[in-house]
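User: Before I run my own analysis I want an independent prediction to cross-check against. Here's the chain; please return only the structure tokens and, at the end, one sentence I can use as a sanity check.
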Amino acid sequence: MGGKHILVAAALALAAPAAAAELPAALVAKVGATVDADTARLTAVFKDLHQHPELAFTETRTAGIVAKELKALGFEVTTGVGKTGVVGVLKNGAGPTVWFRADMDANGGVRETTGLPWAAKGPQRLADGSEVDVMHACGHDGHVTWLLGLAKAMVTLKADWSGTLVVYAQPAEEIGMGAQAMVDDGLWTRGFPKPDYALSSHAVPGPVGFVANTAGVRMAGTDQLDIVFKGKGGHGSAPELAIDPVVMAAQAILSYQTIISRNVDPQSAAVLTVGAVQAGRDNNVIPSTATLMLNLRWLQKPVREQMLTRIDEINKGVAIAAGMGPDAMPTRTMKGTAPPLVNDAKLVDAVNPSLTELLGAGKVIGNFPTVMGSEDFQVAFEPLGTPYVFLLIGIAPMEKFAAAQKAGRAFPYANHNPDFFIDLPAVALGTKIDTVAALALLAQK
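Assistant: Structure tokens:
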């Protein structure tokens, strides 16, 4: 969902001392060997997924691959949850139930520039016949691959753990609507085993071989909303006979900037971004409407409410000043929303020592700043109060990361950019990280 970046340089300096590993070294080594034996297949899966990105709620091909792979491994598979979501259940005796998520959707409006042989093949045709550039510019192809690798590894290692593993592929994370769609479609009323713990992970442009996992508020809450300004259409040569919604939209965009700078407490983090402006088609026609597509980020609910209130006030004021009547005020449509993501402290402590055993000392970042990027993973577990952990896994080549640092840049590239890519060694390593995290909660002690 946009901007899930960690300040790796600062985090490395703040890394807490590693605790003693919980999982036996022999089991962690077994995970490594199991995934290494599967790396060629996983790399092929990853490349295929990257070449065939799909937008939110259209991830039918990706969901089909997930369902087929999980069925072949012996999972009880349910498809079509929240339109394209897939849930796989593997029962393996007594013990806790752990849910592990991967998101499936790609980014629209991004044309890949990596030049990789497995780059996205072309634009996606939408239901209305139009086409849009689509790219896995946020790593969800890697997330799905890691999930499938985790599923196979956990089947192979069934003798080493006990409990129930639920792996699921979620649609529409980028627009913040997928998790809620699965809940609304009966995620907790279909008879799936209720979770004791939940896990997920995300690709970030830190160096391969590092993972960030710390307790507390990790990511901001978010809202996606559309504002429609209504005007009076007309000829471009006679603006006095029209009321121009494009001008209203432009005035609103500039006024929105004062919400953060002049209304929100400077010590309260918040972001307001206008990501798209849609109005008109022809050079000489004043359109009847103009639409603004906004994104909000916040850490505190009162700040969220303050931003929404001020947006409404600005919209109304602009419309009245333009001469619109009370029956033609701007409309606000709320779309995807998610609260801040908060890692459970006890789960962080349970998982990190085993990750240190896997990666080595200093590679597990236990203390890094809260970021204003957002997620909807946690939305699914709010109704149950399930404790969860969300891992951030480095996927950039170390040499590129080091060069960026030397040049004064935080990262060599960013999520949602056309040059984003997952370094191939991260395919296997991300799988190992996810598998060790799950085993840390399920392995027989």
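Sanity check: The first strand starts at residue 76 and ends at 81.
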